[in-house]
C-alpha cells in the first residue's frame, strides 16, 4: 500500500463539478474506454451474487490496463478484514468500498492499515446516512438501499434528503442515477462525486459507452458551489480524510 497524505478541504466555495465513478466493470476494453472518456474511478464488484461480479484475476487484468490517474475501487459486502486486505494487495486497489453492514471498527482498522475507505450508507435501511458520525476516516457513498441486492438496484430516490450531508461529510451520490436525472440529483444533494452502474449499461456488467460519455459530459457541466474535496485518487496521488 502506498502512503497517504492529508486531503485539503477549501473553506471558500467555488464552482466545482463532482468526480465520476463508473462501477461494475467486467472487461478490460470497457474499463479502459470509460477511463479515456474521463472517469475518475473504476469500480470492481467482489460480491458473488451480483450480476456484475468480477473475479480477482480479471479485476487485476483490468486494473493493470488502466492509466495510473484513475482510481481502482474494490466493492465488498460484509467481507472479513483479511479477505479485503488480500484482495486489495493482489489487484492492487487504491480504495475499498464497503457496501454492507460493516461496523465502524472495520472501517477504522482498514484505514489504520493504509487503505482508503468509502463506506456505503442508506436512506431506507441500516446503516443509515444519519449514522455517518459513527465512522471515522471514511468518505460515504449514499443511496436508498431498497431492492434485493446491496447496491442501488437502479432505483431513484429523494436526493434532496442529502442537501445538508455534504456540508459535513465527503459524499459520493449513488442509486438510480441516469443521464436524465444526474443534473437535478447533483443540484439537490451537492455531492463530491457521483457513482453510476446500471444507468449506463446495455445489460448487467456491459456498459453503453455512448451513455457513459453522455453521463460524464453532463456531470462535468453541472458545477455547484461546494468545498473542494477529491475522494478518488489513483496511484499518482493519495488522499487521507482528516478528522472532522
Description:
The chain has one domain (17-226): Aldolase class I (TIM Barrel), CATH 3.20.20.70. It starts with 13 loop residues before the first strand and ends in an 18-residue tail after the last strand. With 244 residues, it is α/β, with parallel strands linked by helices. α5 (165-168) links the parallel β7 (139-143) and β8. Helices cover 25% and strands 20% of the residues. α1 runs parallel beside α2 (56-65). It has helices at residues 28-36, 56-65, 81-90, 104-112, 165-168, 182-189, 209-220; strands spanning 14-16, 19-23, 41-45, 71-76, 95-98, 116-122, 139-143, 171-173, 193-196, 201-203, 206-207, 224-226.
Low-confidence stretches: 1-12, 237-244
- The third-level CATH topology is TIM Barrel
Largest sheet: 8 strands, parallel, barrel
Radius of gyration: 16 Å
Measured distance between first and last alpha carbons = 24 Å
**CATH level 1 name:** Alpha Beta
**Strands of the biggest beta sheet: in what spatial order?**
2-3-4-5-6-7-8-9
Bin the strand percentage: 15-25%
Please provide the ordered H/E string of secondary-structure elements. EEHEHEHEHEEHEHEEEHE
Mean pLDDT: 87
| Estimated structural class | alpha/beta
Amino acid at each position: 500500500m502506498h502512503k497517504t497524505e492529508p486531503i485539503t478541504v477549501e473553506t471558500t466555495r467555488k464552482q466545482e463539478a463532482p468526480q465520476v465513478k463508473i462501477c461494475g466493470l467486467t472487461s478490460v476494453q470497457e474499463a479502459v474506454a470509460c477511463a479515456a472518456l474521463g472517469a475518475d474511478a473504476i469500480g470492481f464488484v467482489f460480491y458473488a451474487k451480483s450480476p456484475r461480479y468480477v473475479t480477482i484475476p480479471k479485476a487485476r487484468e483490468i486494473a493493470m490496463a488502466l492509466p495510473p490517474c484513475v482510481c481502482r475501487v474494490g466493492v465488498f459486502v460484509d467481507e472479513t478484514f483479511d479477505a479485503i486486505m488480500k484482495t486489495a494487495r493482489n489487484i492492487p486497489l487504491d480504495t475499498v468500498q464497503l457496501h454492507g453492514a460493516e461496523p465502524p471498527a472495520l472501517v477504522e482498522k482498514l484505514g489504520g492499515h493504509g487503505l482508503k475507505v468509502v463506506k456505503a450508507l442508506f436512506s431506507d435501511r441500516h446503516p443509515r446516512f444519519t449514522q455517518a458520525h459513527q465512522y471515522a476516516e471514511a468518505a460515504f457513498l449514499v443511496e436508498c438501499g431498497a431492492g434485493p441486492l446491496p447496491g442501488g438496484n437502479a432505483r431513484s430516490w429523494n436526493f434532496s434528503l442529502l442537501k445538508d450531508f455534504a456540508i459535513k461529510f465527503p459524499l459520493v451520490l449513488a442509486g438510480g442515477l441516469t443521464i436524465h436525472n444526474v443534473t437535478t440529483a447533483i443540484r439537490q444533494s451537492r455531492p463530491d462525486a457521483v457513482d453510476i452502474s446500471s444507468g449506463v449499461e446495455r445489460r448487467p456488467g456491459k456498459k453503453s459507452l455512448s451513455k457513459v460519455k453522455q453521463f460524464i459530459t453532463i456531470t462535468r457541466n453541472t458545477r455547484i458551489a461546494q468545498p473542494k474535496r477529491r475522494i478518488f485518487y489513483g496511484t499518482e496521488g493519495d488522499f487521507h480524510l482528516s478528522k472532522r
